[in-house]
Specification:
This protein has helices spanning 16-30, 42-47, 68-72, 75-98, 116-122, 135-145, 184-191, 213-220, 256-264, 284-297, 315-320, 334-339, 352-360, 374-384, 401-412, 416-435, 440-443, and strands at residues 6-11, 34-41, 50-51, 56-60, 106-109, 126-131, 159-160, 169-170, 202-205, 225-227, 249-250, 271-275, 300-304, 326-329, 343-348, 365-367, 388-390. By secondary structure, the chain is of the alpha/beta class. The chain has two domains: 6-248 and 436-450, Glycogen Phosphorylase B (Rossmann fold), CATH 3.40.50.2000; 252-430, Glycogen Phosphorylase B (Rossmann fold). It has a seven-stranded parallel beta sheet, sandwiched between helices. Strands 14-13-12-15-16-17 form a six-stranded parallel beta sheet, sandwiched between helices. A two-stranded antiparallel ribbon has the order 3-11. Helix 14 links the parallel strand 16 and strand 17 (388-390). The model is unreliable at 442-451 (pLDDT under 50). It binds uridine-5'-diphosphate.
Length: 451
């Protein structure tokens, strides 16, 4: 029988991009004999398409058991109700587990759900906030929270200097909420991630020291920060957890065989992988520009278009698409794809998991950020780590086909792309070193070796 050192209850925000990092961190803790229970919503559990992970999962309610986030109508309505109903159902779960062999000692929560700290305090539990964005983005939200900077986007080229940043950033580089979906109310929720942090024991960030040295050093003076990234399955990085090859919990069904069979027939570094993640809603006009930009680049491509986005694809594009040119799928096993030797570049919406995965697997990028933290991530990809180019939007906010074509060619074919490709290889090594024995993730543990 395994004797556990502690029992940690994990509470991710129930979106793919937030679940993946927390699940990976859970597996690392589990390998150190910490018992893990992941608490997620009833709706998500009912709708999971793939669930192969060994960690135990329990259900709580977000107040929308039948329709989840979509039933709520808006993000703000969703998080508001989640707080009301979630506080009660989480308390009930902790009470239930209190009667088990191994009661809960610690809660790790996504700071989108900052109310969890109050529940943890009610039960006298240790708590840790787990930020799934990088430290740069957290730092920006921190300064908005403190009222030091205003984040409302402007049309001009005004530059903002943020403490901890080594370079000034422009309005187009900050997390943006340009009313695309709900406007400034979302910003309030984002900034509220910092509202309870004075009460937590640790702050965990899915990043690694070398990636954001100055910002991490700066924020460490304010908060008990531990960088614990990149949180991707061990077999893609340090290979210390032998059965850890995939996240093991997916909201979408990956078309694994179709993707890998097709990639297996493509030459090394010849394929562009394109994905906008689990959530982004791309405007129809942008979809059309992207489609023709891909085709005109004359590179082979593997493009993930979620089924809800598919109707926006131009009809003649699909009709003309042959397996000689490209493959469009509704979801793929992204890590296996990025690792595949045929992949030469990743055109990405710059979700933080996608960037960390590309860094960890040494794939150079074309950054096409959509919203939230993605513009900041894109800024770092292009200007700080120099592992990609950024496809510029026109004044209407659309990236035109010619720009897309040029960016793809630049990374995949041209001399200028050589440096970007070399840098990508360099960062891959650094990511691996960070999580390996003696790497910066471990060096950041305290003198007792406690995470
Ligand atoms: N992903 C995947 N298959 C796909 C597209 C995405 O497995 O076809 C995974 C990807 O590996 C990443 C997550 O979904 O772990 C997306 O997270 P990210 O932060 O990049 O973007 P979000 O979906 O949160 O916008």
């Amino acid at each position: 029988m395994t004797t556990h050192k502690a029992h940690c209850l994990m509470l991710p925000y129930p979106f793919q991009g937030h679940i993946n990092p927390m699940l990976q961190f859970s597996k690392r803790l589990q390998s150190k004999r910490v018992k893990i229970t992941i608490a997620t919503t009833k709706y998500l559990l009912k709708n999971m398409k793939e669930l192969t992970t060994s960690v135990s999962i329990e259900a709580i309610s977000d107040g929308f058991d039948d329709g989840g986030r979509d039933q709520a109508g808006s993000f703000v309505a969703y998080v508001t109700r989640f707080k009301e109903v979630g506080s009660d159902t989480l308390s009930q779960l902790i009470q239930k587990l209190a009667n088990s062999e191994c009661p809960v000692n610690c809660i790790v929560y996504d700071p989108f759900l900052s109310w969890v700290v109050e529940v943890a305090r009610k039960f006298g539990l240790v708590s840790a906030a787990f930020f799934t964005q990088n430290c740069a983005v957290d730092n920006i939200y921190y300064h908005v929270h403190k009222g030091v900077i205003k984040l409302l986007p402007t049309q001009n080229d005004e530059k903002i200097l943020i403490p901890g940043f080594s370079c000034p950033i422009e309005a187009s580089d900050v997390p943006n909420y340009v009313m695309k979906i709900e406007g400034p109310k979302i910003l309030e929720v984002m900034v509220n991630q910092f509202s309870n942090l004075d009460k937590v024991d640790w702050i965990l960030i899915n990043s690694f020291y070398e990636l954001e040295k100055e910002i991490i050093d700066w924020m460490s003076k304010l908060y008990p920060i531990k960088t614990i990234g990149p949180t991707i399955p061990s077999m893609y990085l340090d290979k210390r957890l032998h059965d850890d090859k995939e996240y093991g919990l997916s909201i979408f069904k990956p078309m694994t065989n179709e993707c890998l069979n097709w990639l297996n027939h493509q030459p090394i570094n010849s394929v562009l992988y394109v994905s906008f993640g689990s959530f982004a809603i791309v405007e129809a006009e942008q979809m059309e520009e992207l489609a023709w930009g891909l085709k005109n680049s004359n590179n082979k491509f593997l493009w993930v278009v979620r089924s809800t986005e598919e109707p926006k694809l131009p009809k003649d594009f699909l009709e003309e698409l042959t397996s000689e040119k490209g493959l469009v799928v509704s979801w793929c096993p992204q890590l296996q794809v990025l690792e595949h030797e045929s992949i030469g570049c990743f055109l990405t919406h710059c979700g933080w998991n996608s960037i960390l995965e590309a860094i960890s697997l040494g794939v150079p990028m074309v950054a096409m950020p959509q919203w939230t933290d993605q513009p900041t991530n894109a800024k770092f990809v292009k200007d700080v780590w120099e592992i990609g180019v950024r496809a510029k939007q026109d004044e209407k906010g659309i990236v035109r086909r010619e720009v897309i074509e040029e960016c793809i060619k630049l990374v995949m074919e041209e001399e200028k792309g050589k440096l970007i490709r070399e840098n990508a290889k360099k960062w891959k090594e650094m990511a691996r070193n960070a999580v390996d024995e003696g790497g910066s993730v471990r060096a950041k543990h305290d003198e007792k070796g406690i995470v």
